[in-house]
Task: structure prediction
Amino acid sequence: MSAQTETHQEEEQLNYLTNGKSLKSWLLTGDHKRIAILYLISTALFFMVGGIFAGLIRIELTSPTGVLLETETYNRVFTAHGLVMIFMFLIPAIPAVLGNFVLPLMIGARDLAFPRLNLLSWYTYMVGGILITWALCIGGVDTGWTFYTPLSTSYSHGPISLAILGAFVVGFSSIFTGINFIATIHKMRAPGMTWFRLPLFVWAMYGTSVVILLGTPVVAITLALVMVERWTGIGIFSPELGGDPVLFQHMFWFYSHPAVYIMILPAFGVISELIANFSRKRIFGYHFVAFSTLAIAGLGFLVWGHHMFVSSQSMYEGIVFSLISFLVAVPSAIKIFNWTATIYKGNVRLNTPMIYAICFMMLFTVGGLTGLFLSSMGTDVHLTATYFVVAHFHYVMVGGAITGFLGGVHYWWPKMTGRMYPEGIARVNAILIFIGFTATFVPQFIVGFMGMPRRYHYYYFAPEFQIYHILSTMGASILAIAFFTPATYLIWSLFKGEKASANPWGAHGLEWEIASPPDSHNFHHIPIVTDEVYDFPGVEYAHPSHGPKKKKSKEAEPATKGKH
Amino acid sequence: MASKAHAEVENFPVHVHHQFEDIEQQNEAYIVGMWTFMVTEVMFFGALFLAYILYRWHYQPDFYMAHKGLSIPAGAANTTLLLLSSFTMVLGVHYAQLRKSKMVVTMLGTTCVLATIFLCIKFAVEWPPKFQHGLVPGANFGTHPEYLNGASPRAAELFYSLYFLMTGLHAIHIIIGILIIGALAMMWAKGKKIVTEDYIPTELVGLYWHFVDLVWIFLFPLFYLLPQ
Result:
């Protein structure tokens, strides 16, 4: 990895942001970096929309008899929250934004294999997003984001087909991204970039793509069947017409459980990068972390039945699904332990991304461990559809995926924009997110365990729940501020931020060997990779056998001095 | 970007896109991409096959009786046509490798014609009687109970729902295939370099066509030849 350094000296080259300023040059771009920026803007907007719905839910629940919304409206609000957050934010967030941006840079490629498909993916995403938004604007959907039949096929009124069509279309945007990533990772690695020299983020993108490709088509056809049922009145999922509503649940969760891994695997990848680079240490057990990604991707397809322990599934089926669900905890734990071991005796620097990484480890551990309560059938029968479940998956989705996303955005922000974000406020804000998050969701665990059902907005039958809801809403208020702040200071940094050097973190990886921001073709010459991944210069290994196989002899970037 | 790197990019042969180092890398990426796409197609149809298997298991005798409403000769003729079209597609790819433009155009054209006859048999011969016999779910199902061959109407409706959904989705793939193969044949006829310089585009279209053919190889026995 070299030969790039001299190109930095050529002053004031056009970079990917300045190469073409017209709107058209953005909307018709094939550049993976620009498409990543398009995705960043659009996912951030949808995140805001989803967040507003979350706020409405939290306000409504502060009183046992509701304060703001009609019952029907409340159903539509929580459905909208789920739909927007899952399909429009969580699934594309890390792969389509960070993956799009850094994956080709990390493996030494000029672009993804199919740039036009990549652009098509963004347009497909936007079309799906517009359809869903349209459905929400003309009255909304009250089925919950899961579209369970026969409610969605026979009983519910409203623009359900439109919302389902939106989700269906958005699915294709992730399929396109997945195909692109698989072809790119297989065929576009720079010479010398062997599979086991790939940064773990690339492994995570690979696992994610496999899950996307195997799962998304199934949910697409399932949702299409629901649409056809609504339009023609045939009864694939309608019991009164001979169909089987539980089949819908099987087919839906066959995608939608793996979809959880579409959301969390990329975050794992980001965290691996952050932990290694801010501990300045080769990741402990690289191979285990890499293969645990694939193990999660594989096992993730065999656990969907744990969503259906109370859906008339046979007991024996339940036992098998329960057992396999426990097994998923093993590769997840491997990751957590290996990250911990990487930090141990590392040269840790607590920059903002690292704070997010540590928050991630704490929150995800809680999210993962509470998952075990839900995968054991006995406790799940009690906890099904309570706020315990809500808190559990928010720990994984928000505490995990969004924390990972924010950590990754801060980490690669200098590379994406050429500017540093303000470190002080960002650090404080990362801690604020942790506090706000914990304050929001710990009360939900408790109130859920006490029996508060999810999707209810009246709980006058149990006024003692109110205090937990109020605590949770207070936490959510902190969280709202803490999510809003990065948007402001990141935008501020675009104009006033300190100029970033090529490698502000002293990190190791091909993406840090080119200018910030990179030029349109990424690499002037495709680099030849001769050193191992996470091979930090000047790091002494307690056990040389745990260090990189080949020692690098060359100059290697001395951690560029910045105050960050 | 205005530097030598850009000049290098400019000097690449026409058909190598800027992100690739050379034509081999580009071709390999396309082939991996196509196979990956077909994995998604398998899962796409796979969900429907799952539904079919489940309901056949639930309603075995009814599905058997309902399937008698399908025309085995028409289905068999269509199977033959698709198998033949796969053969001509293979020959098309073969001649593409040998760069024999005329033969490629002939073979691709034959493939299109065979596929069109397949659609004609399906839409003009097979489906109209279904409408007359009241066998179309969502339209007029069960208006002529004598055509259900003794199957319970609910189960028979499921059978025909799945029949129309699965063969319909397959027919959509056939139509897309005809369009793509037709476009490819036109490009060969016009001698467009993007297809004539390398057989990979033809090979990719061939892969797609074989997949579509293969789906029918499963659909035909499942619906038409269903044993008791």
About this structure: Chain B has a mean pLDDT of 89. The two ends of chain B are 69 Å apart (CA to CA). The helical segments of chain B are 4-11, 23-58, 60-67, 72-97, 101-132, 153-190, 193-196, 200-223.
